[in-house]
Amino acid sequence: MNKLLTGIAAIAAGAAFAAGSAYAEPTYRFGGGPSGGAWHPATSAGTQLLNQELKGKYNFIYSPSGGSVANVRSVGLGNYATAWGHIGQIYQSWNGTGTFEKDGANKNFRVVARVRAQSQIFAVLADNPIQSFSDMKGKVVNLLSRGSGSNVNCVNVMKALGMMDNIEARYLGFAASARALGDRQIDVFCSAGVPFLIPALTQLSVSKPVRYISLTEEEQKKVTSAYRFYSPITIPVQKDIKGMDKAARSIAYDVWWIAHKQMSDEAVYDMLKVVAAPQNLERLTKAAAYWKDLGGDFNALEEHKILVHPSAARYWKERGVKVPMSIVKGY
């Protein structure tokens, strides 16, 4: 009797294992962004689309994050399978410099797509006497929450201009910093622009007009010389920002989509094939405009020698994109 029961138990266990193997799909975490920023709704919508289109083959789990620094670090460590990151953090992680110096160089990920370009915004209430960066000395400047790429970019600008020791720095998130600006608890709001706007600031300007502060040409050169992954840009007047009446010099940088080596070649290809399909990209863009410029232009990565995933190169080449093969390499 005992032998019979043992045999039945063994058969049952084997059947359960086989069933589990048949229905267990690879699970991949997709890193998102902080509340009040543009990445949170965009990557959340992307994750939902992937699960709808690839149900039964893969399971994607959306994971809110602190932003670019957290995303790039988490992908490098394999805690996230995929995420977006600013070129600054990707470059520093790849080379083990700057914010990632203590982490060491990490090449456990590859780039799969260019998401879009961003700019950096420095804004004040329209009636604030601050007119320039030099006027910010002794003022309360919010540099966004630590761990976000926007925070790193805010700090980089201030460091390049020798201003970090001359301001009262605060580290509030997107939504909290917009409220603080409106309540005059801070003097200057710093944030990424998508490409020239951020929702929390746009909403604030409806009731309390704001202005963007412009770098001088000399200040702009200081920043782009100190950090080679930035390029100069002039933000045109934004009609959605009530109170903005002048263009503002700033910096621009790319946002890239990266994937950890835990993702199979097929998974990377399938992920792109779903998200970047024109009809799906149109759907995503309606839900979150941040997806609008997703593409396979990897030329900017040649200078930095950051590698592109072979499956991504395959997909974008099939779409007619000319991919520089000198930076396409697996693990």
Task: Label this structure with key terms.
331 residues, two-stranded parallel ribbon, globular, 20% strand, eight-stranded mixed sheet, disordered N terminus, 12 helices, 40% helix, D-Maltodextrin-Binding Protein, domain 2, alpha/beta
Helix content: 25-40%
Please describe the biggest sheet, giving its number of strands, its sense, and whether it closes into a barrel: 8 strands, mixed
CATH architecture annotation name of the largest domain: 3-Layer(aba) Sandwich
The H-and-E topology, N to C, reads as HEHEHEHEEHEHEHEHEEHHHH
Number of domains: 2
The gross shape turns out to be globular
**CATH homologous superfamily label of the largest domain:** Periplasmic binding protein-like II
How does this model look, in words?
Helix 9 runs parallel beside helix 12. Strands 3, 4, 5, 6, 7, 8, 9 and 10 form an eight-stranded mixed beta sheet that branches. Strands 1-2 form a two-stranded parallel ribbon. It has twelve helices and ten strands. It is an alpha/beta fold and about 325 residues long. It has two domains: about 170 residues, Periplasmic binding protein-like II (D-Maltodextrin-Binding Protein, domain 2, 3-Layer(aba) Sandwich); about 140 residues, 3-Layer(aba) Sandwich (D-Maltodextrin-Binding Protein, domain 2).
